[in-house]
Design goal:
Length: 348
């Protein structure tokens, strides 16, 4: 099992949108699949084996990580999507409203924090017994355990640190004919901001996991993706990465057995798999078909299951091939393979 880590430089801009024209700070697996496919088109013939391999590989969404540099010591923390679950705060020192607010603000949990949450699931009342006290927050959106920073001697309060900031910039359209200004508008973007204080530096990065082993061609396409960029506004150098690292993913939480499963990818379940859905959020996919063969056409709206959704059993998901009367240059795929990890009662 491989993990690909992609490191942006400081002040790198990203423009990753959703169906409501809002910005996201992560790159879903179906968007990642499309970007890899388009990069493959730039490198290989349309009949190359890479495209068959890509459709068979199970990839996670591109999720955030943080590289922590404290003096001469370095450590990386990988984050997973927060489980979409009802919570029980009866064992918490905070009141119910405070606990609910804190849990709602959380968007990502570190791998070690996820392991702790696994054992907080109460199968009897089907709620997560959440207590914020054992965890530390970065910016209110990321939580990790104290043990993950052991030995780094970090005393700085990181609760207000924002490593990925959404910014709104005023823009104006300039006429190509006479250079006059026309429509005034606002453009949103997500900007990478390294945090530096004394000898402490925090650098955000992205990563995704491949469940299967992949070819050298696949690895080459990932490196091209880093140069081409992800998301929109790539002509303005948005979404570019300065470094790619590939290595074996050693965490055993992927291979454990559990009574529940959480998704690390956006999922399109097969019809017979719908009964295994327990707790989930839906997200729409629409927009335009991006093709190197000519003009773009509007896509059909498809709903996918979001990352962090909970299933009662393991599923495979699906890859949809959609047909369009006005577009027949090549097939259009919607990636929805399920990358699930155990949740609940697992063996340590």
């Amino acid at each position: 099992m491989l993990i690909f880590k992609l490191y942006p430089s400081n002040l790198t801009k990203f423009h990753i949108g959703d169906s409501n024209r809002n910005l996201k700070d992560f790159f879903s697996s179906d968007q990642l699949f499309s970007s890899l496919y388009n990069c493959g088109v730039l490198m290989f013939d349309k009949n190359d084996q890479f495209f068959d391999e890509l459709k068979k590989v199970t990839i996670s969404s591109m999720m955030p990580g943080i590289k922590i540099i404290a003096g001469e010591k370095e450590r990386e923390i990988l984050f997973l999507p927060k489980p979409i679950l009802p919570i029980d705060n009866s064992n918490s020192n905070d009141d119910e409203i405070s606990t609910n607010k804190k849990y709602k603000r959380i968007r990502y949990v570190s791998i070690e924090a996820f392991k702790e949450l696994q054992f907080k699931w109460n199968q009897n009342n089907e709620k997560l017994e959440f207590d914020f006290n054992p965890f530390i927050s970065i910016g209110g959106s990321y939580i990790y355990t104290k043990e993950e920073l052991a030995g780094l001697n970090i005393t700085t309060n990181l609760d207000n640190v924002k490593l990925l900031q959404k910014k709104t910039l005023p823009k104006v359209v300039i006429s190509r004919l006479d250079d006059t200004s026309e429509n005034f508008f606002f453009q949103e973007e997500v900007e990478v901001n390294y945090f530096k204080k004394g000898n402490l530096t925090l650098k955000p990065f992205y990563y995704f996991i491949c469940r299967e082993e992949v070819s050298l061609k696949f690895k080459a396409v990932v490196r091209l993706l880093a140069d081409e960029g992800i998301g929109g506004k790539r002509s303005l150098f948005h979404g570019i990465f300065e470094k790619v690292v590939e290595e074996q993913f050693e965490e055993n939480l992927i291979n454990n057995n559990g009574n529940l499963f959480m998704s690390l990818s956006s999922v399109i379940p097969q019809k017979e798999e719908l009964s295994k859905l327990m707790y989930y959020d839906l997200e729409e996919r629409n927009g335009y078909i991006y093709s190197t063969t000519g003009r773009s056409y509007r896509k059909k709206t498809i709903r996918v299951i979001k990352e962090g959704s909970i299933f009662s059993g393991n599923i495979e998901g699906n890859i949809l091939e959609t047909q369009y009367d006005v577009f027949n240059k090549h097939p259009i795929f919607q990636y929805g393979r399920a990358f699930l990890i155990p949740f609940g009662e697992v063996n340590r």
